[in-house]
Write a structure and sequence with these properties.
Elements lengths: L12 H41 L16 E5 L4 E10 L2 E6 L3 E6 L3 E5 L4 E5 L4 E4 L1 E4 L2 E4 L2 E3 L4 E6 L8 E12 L5 E13 L3 E14 L2 E16 L4 E13 L4 E18 L2 E16 L9 E16 L4 E11 L7 E12 L4 E12 L14 E12 L1
Antiparallel strand pairs: 1-2, 1-5, 2-3, 3-4, 6-7, 6-11, 8-9, 9-10, 12-13, 12-23, 13-14, 14-15, 15-16, 16-17, 17-18, 18-19, 19-20, 20-21, 21-22, 22-23
């Protein structure tokens, strides 16, 4: 077979050289394009690794704060802004615009800075005033170091009296018409004034019921207590006074005055429980008495009380108050006052409240007709509670 037969299938040397040159140029162009397109990716990768290798900037609160906010940093590095309210046992309460009132354990706090002057109660009764900061794990009050273990309580030292007060108002109403005309109104008001060493509490409870234009309940209780903190657990109660009126219990007016001491069993953000006891004096004026009986009697008394407030869940709180006043038989022998409430959060300030009261007098005073009032009175209320 001669080479001429395959002349149409074979390329000449110049043609092969031309194809090789074109292929080389095409490969070079593709390689250059790949290198150019890969440069930004490599640069981005280099920048990413370099950025991750550099430590992030540490954020701190602004040095100048017109509104004088208080700042707390927790061990996770997060910051909380608000108004530092008070120290409970081993935790701090701060009122935040976003989170409302929250509590943080001391062990979770790495930094504190208050924009206001605070009042700090130390073990032993000494009170130190100044702005709070932390430095190298130490608490600084006005630039002076204070041991965390010596801190009993912290409260605002605001010169404004308004900042020391808080209030809780609850109202429950029930109206019925038709075959039975009835209306029930139940109210409870609590005012508190709290400083680092003093705690004043004033309360009023009223229950009124009317059926077919006839009163079937009408009782009122007003009480005031003042506690002076002696140590982390103990407090002295120099005054405790109560006014009570219930014509259906044959009580036109009853005054009780006493003093005593108390012990804080629990004082944490989710549980507050204290008890108190002490001697007192009671003066009772009856509406009506049997012939030969004194309408006004006075007797020594002994008061025992308990206050319990707990957070069951994030949105449900339970409150229970109990007091018993022991007297001579002519004063009723023993008067029991029990109040309980279950609050369900509707908003940050408004709660739905289910409340109940129980009042009992062991030896009620008969009236002139020989009728003796019932020993026990119960009331259940569904209403609203507003925190101020």
């Amino acid at each position: 077979m001669s080479d001429d037969r395959f002349a149409g299938l074979m390329l000449s040397a110049p043609a092969r050289a031309c194809v090789s040159t074109a292929g080389f140029r095409k490969a070079a162009i593709l390689a250059a394009s790949f290198v150019v397109s890969a440069l930004p990716v490599c640069a981005y990768a280099e920048q990413t690794f370099d950025s991750a290798a550099r430590p992030p900037e540490t954020w701190t609160p602004p040095a100048f704060d017109v509104q004088q906010w208080d700042w707390i940093q927790v061990d996770t590095g997060e910051w909380v802004k608000g108004r530092l309210k008070v120290l409970h046992d081993e935790s701090v309460e701060i009122d935040s615009d976003h989170f409302d009132l929250i509590s943080i354990d001391w062990e979770d706090i790495t930094y504190i800075r208050t924009g206001r002057v605070m009042s700090v109660l130390l073990e032993g009764g000494e009170v130190v005033l100044g702005r709070l900061t932390t430095e190298s794990g130490r608490l600084m009050v006005g630039g002076e170091p204070v041991r965390f273990a010596d801190v009993v309580g912290i409260a605002t030292a605001s010169p404004r009296e308004f900042d020391l007060w808080s209030a809780d108002v609850s109202v429950g109403m029930n109206f019925r018409s038709g075959n039975v005309e009835q209306k029930d109104i139940n109210t409870k008001l609590v005012l508190k004034r709290r400083t680092v060493k003093n705690n004043t509490r004033m309360s009023y409870t009223g229950n009124y019921s009317e059926s077919s234009s006839e009163q079937i309940a009408n009782n009122h209780t007003a009480e005031v207590t003042h506690d002076y903190r002696v140590s982390n657990r103990w407090f002295f109660r120099p005054v405790q006074a109560q006014y009570y009126r219930d014509p259906f219990q044959n009580r036109a007016a009853e005054w009780t005055l006493g003093f005593g001491a108390g012990f804080q069993i629990f004082d944490s953000p989710k549980l507050d429980w204290s008890i108190a006891a002490g001697p007192g004096y009671q003066r009772t004026e009856y509406v009506d008495v049997a012939p030969g009986e004194d309408r006004t009697v006075s007797t020594p008394a002994f008061l025992i009380g308990s206050f319990y407030d707990s957070e069951i869940t994030e949105n449900i709180d339970f409150l229970a108050e109990y007091q018993v006043t022991l007297t001579e038989p002519k004063g009723g022998r023993a008067k029991h006052d029990f109040y309980m409430a279950l609050d369900v959060d509707l908003t940050s300030r408004l709660d739905l409240r289910l409340a109940g009261t129980w009042k009992r007098i062991e030896s009620p005073q008969p009236d002139s007709d020989g009728i003796t009032p019932e020993k026990d009175d119960f009331t259940a209320t569904l209403g609203l509670s507003l925190e101020i």
